[in-house]
Amino acid sequence: MTSLTDLTLADMRDGLKAKKFSAVELAEAHLSAIEKANAHYNAFITITRDKAIAMANESDARLAKGQGGTIEGIPVGVKDLFCTKGVLTTAASHILDGFKPPYESTVTTRIWDQGGVMLGKLNMDEFAMGSANITSYYGPVKSPWKRKDGGPDLVPGGSSGGSAAAVAANLCPIALGTDTGGSIRQPASFCGIVGIKPTYGRCSRWGIVAFASSLDQAGPITRTVRDSAIMLNVMCGHDPKDSTSSPLAVPDFEKVLTGDVKGKRIGIPKEYRPDGIDPEILAMWDKGIKLLKDAGAEVIDISLPHTKYALATYYIVAPAECSSNLARYDGVRYGLRVMPEKGGINELYEATRAAGFGKEVKKRIMIGTYVLSAGYYDAYYKKAQQVRWLIAEDFRKAFEKVDVILTPTAPSAAFAIGEKQDDPIMMYLNDVFTVPTSMAGLPGISIPGAINKDGLPLGLQLIGKAFDEETVLGVAYAMEKMIGFNAKPQGIALGVAA
Q: Is there a catalytic annotation at residue 373?
């Protein structure tokens, strides 16, 4: 018999409507899995058991009346970057100790309005700054995946590492993430699941703790493309409280999942084959290209010439915006306060920020403050914004010839915790294939593409035109069916998480 924690969102939705199980039973099954496994994975910072059971009871009452929203009774994990009313929200940082927002983010409000059941808040890289989920104040998250020969614990990717690990380990069927430079797609690749970053502006940013305001975008991490489509139907839409939120109507994303790619034009950028790339990544990519050709798609070689500048540009723009956004954490209004015995307001600021921010966050604040400073603004930040426009223009020209672009998601499989920790360049290179999409504000999805020789998942990325998530999801769904990826993490097989 299939465990309730093994089901996809779509299966749970159908099972609840057919009264095969209740929302409370679903919630209890997942809470039990979390309470059993979280000490090992460290995926959840806060578990909201009482809230989950109360919400599940309300869902059961609505379902009994034949009512209910799109995801009525479905358990949801929330990245701890989303403000949740009355529930600890930390951004995985010491500086937000004890912060319980008096308001709810727009995205989570939409989810609760459609019947979602909150399981808790998920671990992440501090203020979403990282690619391995090792910068959290609450400690690193462990992936449920292991190499075939065992070895050390692996990173789940980041910054939405807790979200990815929880979904992969069957602790929740869906989890909210945010993606600034790849923080949904890269952990989805490392954990063998699906993660989509919608077009910038498709989901409201209101009530999400800000990292880089011109890049941050919420999105779901799920087990299947269909589940991602269902969640986007719930999460997306215009929000008057967010000036960057798009007023465009939201289509029914689930309706486009036909599995047909005949006539679709698939772009293959030559710049995504850098020297030294893992041959197994290339083999997976080539297999994906062949599958699309065999299914009737047209494969077209394209060029995105400014790709090579994307990572350097990102690490000017993102730290600059983080420097500005994180200036609000001062120990005065909320969160941590460290008051020296002697001194005034300046000493309060210094002591609180010194104690409250972690090493990676301090590094990025310093970089951002430097590139925005007098004498360097034009040389760095202004120049980076000009290059960013060129990156977006490359995509615009490419999409005159193609419908979607296919690339690898990440340049490697998951690596061991601590393996690249002392080499910031190697850490930043984890996002080399995802950052260009973010810089251009485009939608991108990662789906599982293959298992490598070590028994670890590798991801394929599909990039679409702005506000054309329909095509991205449609092609991703077809590829998902053709690839037939069904590998599971060893943690689940061994009963660690269920």
A: no
The rounded distance, in Å, linking the Cα atoms of 122 and 109 is 17
What would the two tokens of residue 119 be? 């399981």
Q: Which residues contact 14 (CB under 8 A, 6 or more apart)?
A: none
pLDDT at 494: 45
Query: Which class is 4-264+401-493 in CATH?
Result: alpha beta
On whether the CB atoms of residues 56 and 26 are closer than 8 A, the answer is yes
What angle do the packed helices 23-41 and 9-17 form, to 10 degrees?
150
CA dihedral 84, 95, 438, 178 (to 10 degrees): -30
DSSP annotation of 497 reads -
Measured distance CA(274)–CA(461) in Å, rounded: 16
Candidate list 183, 189, 245, 412, residue with the active-site label = 183
Catalytic pick from 59, 79, 121, 136?
Answer: 79
Task: Return d(Cα 463, Cα 466) in angstroms, integer.
Answer: 9
For 42, the token pair is 């460290």
Which residues of the chain are under the pLDDT cut of 50? 1, 493-498
Q: How many Cβ atoms from other residues are within 10 Å of residue 269's Cβ?
A: 22
Give the separation between CA 35 and CA 423, rounded to whole angstroms: 34
Nearest Cα residue to 363 out of 130, 199, 14, 28: 130
Whether the full predicted model's pTM is greater than 0.85, yes or no, is yes
CB 34 within 8 A of CB 119: yes
* C-alpha gyration radius of the chain: 21
C-alpha distances (whole Å) from 334 to each of 79, 80, 90, 340 are 20, 16, 11, 17
Distance CA 251, CA 397 (A): 25
- Does residue 163 have a cis peptide bond before it, meaning omega lies within 30 degrees of 0? no
SS3 assignment for 300-354? EEECCHHHHHHHHHHHHHHHHHHHHHHHHCCCCCCCCCCCCCCCCHHHHHHHHHH
* 79 is a catalytic site residue: yes
Of 59, 105, 131, 159, the active-site residue reads 159
pLDDT reported for residue 398: 98
Neighbours of 481 (CB within 10 A): 13
pLDDT score, position 496: 44
Kindly state the DSSP code that residue 430 receives in the 8-state scheme. Answer: G
C-alpha 222/C-alpha 193 separation (Å) is 6
Tokens 């301090």 sit at which residue? 362
Tell me how far apart the alpha carbons of residues 5 and 34 are, in angstroms, rounded to a whole number. 10
